[in-house]
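Appendix B. Raw example, untouched.
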Amino acid sequence: MSGVTKTIGAVFATSQGVERAQLAFDATTGLITDFGALGVPTADLDWHYGDECLAFAGLGDIHIHAREDVSGAHVYKEDFQTAGAAALNGGVTFVADMPNNPVPPVDEGSYLAKLALTARAPVVILPYAGIGPATRPLPFPVPYKAYMGPSVGELYFRDDRELAEAIRHYAGEWVSFHCEDPVELGRHTQESEHHLKRPVSCEVLATRTALALIEEHGLQGKLCHYSAGEGLPLIRAARARGVRVACEVTPQHLYFDQSQLGERRGYFQMNPPIRESDDREAMLAAARAGEIDFLATDHAPHTAEEKARGTSGLTGLDSYGGFVTWLLRTQGFTPERVALMAAENPGRFVNHFLPGLAARHAPYAGLGLGFGFLTPGHVANVTVLNLHAPHRLTESELKTKVGHNPFVGVEFPGRVSQVFVQGRARK
């Protein structure tokens, strides 16, 4: 069924370039029908954005912790509705949610039960399934997550032998790794500060293990929230051998280092920890050069009281779009690079799983070719950033349920101007 055609005019950025263009979509299906120099007079456009703005296919974050599961035990921190609201606030139009819940999605029943809960969110949320010592692959394609060190419940491994025994069952699958070696972590438990208890060596050792498993079992691997500059040569060497490994980086690890934390050091606790300036600069350079595939927040909401007690994890969805303007205006990132890291690669990741899940989750059936691209048949998700509207993030404008964000008080050079989700203006 087709409906009324709506049109957006803006300066659009894709990995192929930047151009003033027009995007047409079917207002009934929410799918793109045309893109380019369509010749629609400016007065006839439904939305028009000036040269101070830059529009992308809707941004996507493939690493968040929305906290909701069938137990409801952690929805006091966040739920799918509030996580979705925080995403929209930050210009994010689709996300993928991690499995370390009190009731983790590890088999068909538990996965589909969690997937059904995501229907209440204002953005599409794709759940990961968890890998633990006794788990096995689901009967349909989903993204998997392996926690190499301690996590919630039993979704972690005590040593490399236990991990290797589990991973061999997942040959050929998309498996993401939290790279912190559990044995090496155990050697640093008596250190005085969090970043010393989880040093770079923990991440580098786990990187070696993850890369070996990805290569041995033909996985499509992904290294989550990468932060160790020392590990980047290992990733480069693996890719040169043909190992299929992708890499995420968080805004927190690109913006902050230990020298900036001061009296708020406890609040900034996360895993892996905020690193030294050399690691931050190495990750920025790798991302700028195209060696990092995903900008992903690891949005991990905990209450202020939990943070004060030393709980690891930082939020990040509300600040995503503003942070992107910082990359573009101050850090030498091209619009093409941002389009790849923040829209197209996340879109490819999520789109891979949509066909197999559409029959099991009705909302997926109307998503066409999926996300991340400004081409016909894809979802009409668009994020418009005003690059020349400096904005200082405040607590009062946050949508995350826990009400805090590490970038509160930071002035970004721009802000989110508008967000479209399946053709509907949502910001």
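End of appendix B.
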